[in-house]
Amino acid sequence: MKIAVISDIHGFSLALEAVLGDIANEPGIELIVAAGDLCEGGPDPVGALTMLQQRDLTLIRGNTDRDLVQGVRTSAPATWVTEQLGEDGVAFLAALPFDFRFTPPGGRPIDDDLLVVHANPFDEDRPLSPTASDREVSELIGETRAGVIAFGHIHIAYQRVFDGIQLIDVSAVGNPKDEDLRSKWGLCSWREDRGAWSTELRYVEYPLEATIAQMEASGMPKWRKAAQKLQLASYREL
Predict the structure, then answer these.
(1) Is domain 2-232 classified as CATH 3.60.21.10?
(2) Could you tell me the residue ranges of all domains in the chain?
(3) Of 24, 37, 49, 88, whose CA is between 20 and 30 Å from 97?
């Protein structure tokens, strides 16, 4: 069986549409999981959330979803997102679970599970960085057991095996930061005959021109700066 994992949509509905279209072209996908940070940052928080709801995806929360619910983000862009979502949208985010765990057919519960989290198995903030030492990864994973841990949060695509667990950072749909503007998603395939997962990163061309036009028309605060940061596709300052 196949499971698609996406993350960090951040209100970029056109990029989300492109990624979901790419996933639809992959035969045999039975489940799509979105690993949080669904709405804040892009020009269409309501459209992105509505698309996720209508496609009946499995959703978990990220740090920005949590912060929107708690009202701790007070910048003009964050306030705009909260206003766009309204009470119903914020309530939906408040009900999202922290993680998603799936035991594959014929697999051993826990040891062979696919575990999807936003940042790490214990909180939505501390990143599993691609440059983290084994000690740092051990501190973040703790005694967690799984076959695969899939996550996003830092918007940088990479894979790594640690202590027998396959780690896959599926990067971001909405605003990648690994100097590659293409949107990313992760394909997790379970082979029951082998009793093992295989994982793969997929890349989708970004609808940049249409997205910038959408940002300009959206009314989002500081859209020009946001558009410039999007095109950098990195954490470098403007």
Answers:
(1) yes
(2) 2-232
(3) 24
